[in-house]
Amino acid sequence: MNDILERLSRILEARKQADPDSSYVAGLYAKGLDAILKKIGEEAAETLLAAKDGVLDQIVHEVADLWFHTLVLLAQQGLGPDAVLEELDRRFGLSGLEEKARRRS
């Protein structure tokens, strides 16, 4: 299970070279950053609505869509999931208040 982010990251990277007509992700890349950001916004809103409705399967589905599209953004920006995982690891053991205070410094 843990390698799924890495496998997905490799696929997203490969889609940068794909024909936009042959791949949903290649099409997003071709449309540019604004299209990717719009999709993330849509998926975030759908996640909120699913959580509000309390339907667990729908929450999981929408969070998967949200994560997927944020991974597309990371790839488009030349980043991968490891950058986020490293940041989360850096924060591990810090209180949220302490972590926020460090960002302000």
Give an overview of the whole structure.
The chain has 105 residues and is an all-alpha fold. The chain has a single domain, classed as MazG-like (Helix Hairpins, Orthogonal Bundle). Helices cover 77% and strands 0% of the residues. It has six helices and no strands. Helix 1 crosses helix 4 and helix 3 runs antiparallel to helix 4. The longest helix is centred in the middle third of the chain and has 21 residues. It is globular, with a radius of gyration of 16 Å.
Features:
single chain; about 100 residues; mainly alpha; Helix Hairpins; globular
Q: How large a portion of the residues is in β-strands, by DSSP E? A: under 5%
Mean pLDDT: 93
User: Please, what is the CATH homologous superfamily?
Assistant: MazG-like
The structural class is mainly alpha
Number of strands: 0
Describe the secondary-structure layout.
Elements: H1 4-14, H2 24-31, H3 33-53, H4 56-76, H5 81-91, H6 96-104
Helix pairs in contact: 1-4, 3-4
